[in-house]
Specification:
This is Homoserine kinase. The chain has eleven helices and nine strands. The protein has 340 residues and is α+β, with helices and mostly antiparallel strands. Helix 4 (158-173) runs parallel beside helix 9 and helix 6 (234-245) packs across helix 9.
Length: 340
């Protein structure tokens, strides 16, 4: 974590004192290094720790950075088999600190930035990725009507809707023409599978570094970063995991490309998919390449937006955002390869 002086602590302290039961200052804050989209902070008082997530400052793309949706979905999931932090308070008064924000529980666990989990034993790696698979299947089996999320996403073909949305987002933040990205967009639009009737809650950015696990175990304490969540098609989340694994290993790629997975106790792509299908009672998944290509496309759009915000001076971590921008052409190429 890094210090950040941009957060108006006196304003937050006054607001929490008036609106959050049990809150008592004085207040200190530290910004998490992770979280390129919605800046995230640890808040500390003498008695308790909290987490604050806010919209970034500046002019934002329409419908992006919806912290109110993050708050709503995690509140709805409380008590289900999908672990989430407890939600404490949502502030939609942007005059308090300059943007909307919410306060949630500070989970006391551990996160893994890379799926290799090099510091862990073979048995621990196996157990953690099995837990990751289990939680994903549970997420897609949540009864959205029962938890009050039936209106959390519009009706219709999820992939058509998402391709349209992210194409608009990409065009709005486009800084230079990338031919492979143009081709990928066109090809995806022409390759959308017929709607198979699956309509579930989807996380939108499901990967190991958005999960928190017990410090002394392998059970998942919470799924984090719900900014891209909606009602949609579950295969988008599953393919997002596989997409991440196809990236290069290391701090930036955080993938498994070229890794001897068997030696580390990590499942193959197919084994992970089959495990998920077994948990959900599915016979298998046809045309998985489309779902994989879709995720490469969407991630390219996300990274382009981060890069544009860096140019505009609104990125959470400007130096890192500049690096991410260079990945956009690579993700476009991977998307086209997945379709083949």
């Amino acid at each position: 974590m890094t210090d950040n002086t941009a957060l108006d602590l006196p304003a937050i302290d006054a607001y929490l004192s008036a609106h959050l039961d049990g809150y008592n200052g004085p207040l200190k804050a530290t910004k998490f290094d992770v979280g390129q989209s919605n800046p995230t902070f640890e808040l500390r008082t003498p008695a308790k720790k909290y987490v604050l997530r806010r919209k970034p400052p500046g002019v934002l793309l329409k419908s992006a950075h919806a912290v109110d949706r993050e708050y709503r979905v995690q509140t709805a999931l409380a008590g289900t088999k999908v672990p989430v932090p407890e939600m404490y308070l949502l502030c939609e008064d942007s005059t308090v600190i300059g943007s909307d924000f919410y306060i949630m529980e500070r989970l006391d666990g551990r996160t893994f930035l890379e799926p290799t989990m090099e510091s862990q034993s073979v048995e621990t790696r196996k157990a953690i990725l099995d837990e990751m698979n289990r939680v994903l299947a549970e997420l897609h089996m949540v009864d959205v009507d029962a938890v009050g999320l039936s209106d959390y996403g519009p009706p219709g073909n999820y992939f058509e809707r998402q391709i349209g949305r992210w194409t608009k987002q990409y065009r709005a933040s486009e800084t230079t023409q990338i031919p492979d990205m143009d081709t990928l967009i066109t090809t995806l639009e022409q390759s959308v599978p017929a709607d198979d009737g699956q309509r579930t809650l989807v996380h939108g950015d499901y990967r190991i570094d958005n999960l928190m696990f017990a410090k002394d175990g392998t059970n998942c304490l919470g799924v984090l970063d719900w900014e891209l969540s909606t009602i949609g098609h579950p295969y988008a989340d599953l393919a997002a995991v596989i997409m991440q694994w196809q990236m290069p290993p290391g701090k930036e790629g955080r993938g498994l490309a070229g890794i001897d997975r068997a030696n580390l106790g990590l499942p193959s792509d197919q084994a992970f998919i089959e495990q998920y299908c077994q948990r959900r009672g599915l016979p298998g998944i046809d045309k998985f390449g489309f779902y994989l290509a879709f995720n490469f496309f969407r991630m390219a759009g996300i990274l382009q937006g981060v890069y544009k915000r860096a140019l505009d001076g609104n990125a959470s971590d400007p130096k890192r955002a500049q690096v991410f921008g260079a990945y956009v052409p690579m993700f476009a190429r991977h998307g086209l390869a997945a379709l083949k």
